[in-house]
Design a protein that fits this description.
The protein is mainly alpha-helical. It is 64% helix and 5% strand. The chain contains 2 helices and 2 strands, in the order ααββ. A two-stranded antiparallel sheet has the order 1-2. It is elongated, with a radius of gyration of 19 Å.
Protein backbone atom coordinates (compact mmCIF):
# COMPACT_ATOMS: atom_id res chain seq x y z
CA UNK A 1 0.00 0.00 0.00
CA UNK A 2 1.18 3.52 -0.67
CA UNK A 3 0.16 6.96 0.48
CA UNK A 4 -1.08 9.50 -2.05
CA UNK A 5 0.12 13.08 -1.61
CA UNK A 6 -2.55 15.71 -1.05
CA UNK A 7 -1.10 17.74 -3.93
CA UNK A 8 -1.71 14.85 -6.34
CA UNK A 9 -5.33 14.52 -5.20
CA UNK A 10 -5.85 18.26 -5.55
CA UNK A 11 -4.41 18.33 -9.07
CA UNK A 12 -6.57 15.34 -10.06
CA UNK A 13 -9.68 17.03 -8.67
CA UNK A 14 -8.95 20.30 -10.50
CA UNK A 15 -8.19 18.63 -13.83
CA UNK A 16 -11.30 16.46 -13.55
CA UNK A 17 -13.45 19.50 -12.75
CA UNK A 18 -11.99 21.31 -15.80
CA UNK A 19 -12.89 18.30 -17.95
CA UNK A 20 -16.47 18.35 -16.62
CA UNK A 21 -16.79 22.12 -17.23
CA UNK A 22 -15.66 21.69 -20.83
CA UNK A 23 -18.03 18.75 -21.41
CA UNK A 24 -20.95 20.61 -19.80
CA UNK A 25 -20.25 23.70 -21.88
CA UNK A 26 -20.13 21.78 -25.16
CA UNK A 27 -23.31 19.81 -24.48
CA UNK A 28 -25.36 22.71 -23.11
CA UNK A 29 -24.29 25.08 -25.90
CA UNK A 30 -25.09 22.41 -28.52
CA UNK A 31 -28.62 22.20 -27.11
CA UNK A 32 -29.32 25.89 -26.42
CA UNK A 33 -27.05 27.75 -28.89
CA UNK A 34 -27.01 30.55 -26.30
CA UNK A 35 -23.89 31.67 -24.44
CA UNK A 36 -25.82 33.33 -21.58
CA UNK A 37 -27.84 30.21 -20.76
CA UNK A 38 -24.81 27.96 -21.22
CA UNK A 39 -22.74 30.07 -18.83
CA UNK A 40 -25.47 30.20 -16.18
CA UNK A 41 -26.18 26.48 -16.29
CA UNK A 42 -22.48 25.52 -16.23
CA UNK A 43 -21.79 27.75 -13.22
CA UNK A 44 -24.84 26.59 -11.24
CA UNK A 45 -24.34 22.95 -12.18
CA UNK A 46 -20.68 22.87 -11.22
CA UNK A 47 -21.14 24.69 -7.92
CA UNK A 48 -24.02 22.40 -6.91
CA UNK A 49 -22.29 19.19 -8.06
CA UNK A 50 -19.09 20.15 -6.22
CA UNK A 51 -21.09 20.81 -3.04
CA UNK A 52 -23.00 17.53 -3.41
CA UNK A 53 -19.75 15.62 -3.98
CA UNK A 54 -18.24 17.13 -0.83
CA UNK A 55 -21.32 16.21 1.24
CA UNK A 56 -21.31 12.70 -0.27
CA UNK A 57 -17.64 12.24 0.65
CA UNK A 58 -18.24 13.45 4.21
CA UNK A 59 -21.19 11.09 4.60
CA UNK A 60 -19.14 8.13 3.35
CA UNK A 61 -16.41 8.96 5.87
CA UNK A 62 -18.91 7.94 8.55
CA UNK A 63 -19.74 4.61 6.91
CA UNK A 64 -17.37 1.85 7.99
CA UNK A 65 -18.39 -0.72 5.37
CA UNK A 66 -15.45 -1.67 3.14
CA UNK A 67 -12.78 0.06 5.22
CA UNK A 68 -9.72 -1.91 6.25
CA UNK A 69 -8.07 -1.43 9.61
CA UNK A 70 -4.73 0.41 9.56
CA UNK A 71 -3.36 -2.46 11.67
CA UNK A 72 -3.25 -4.63 8.55
CA UNK A 73 -0.64 -2.36 6.95
CA UNK A 74 2.84 -1.23 7.82
CA UNK A 75 3.61 2.34 6.84
CA UNK A 76 7.10 3.55 6.18
CA UNK A 77 8.19 7.19 6.18
CA UNK A 78 10.63 8.81 3.78
CA UNK A 79 13.46 7.82 6.12
CA UNK A 80 12.62 4.10 5.70
CA UNK A 81 11.56 3.72 9.33
CA UNK A 82 8.33 2.00 10.22
CA UNK A 83 5.50 4.36 11.21
CA UNK A 84 2.55 3.47 13.44
Amino acid sequence: MFKVAIKRSLVKAITFRMLIIIADTVVIYAITKRVDITTSVVIISNISSTLLYFLHERAWNNIHWGKLSDKRFIFYGGDGKQKG
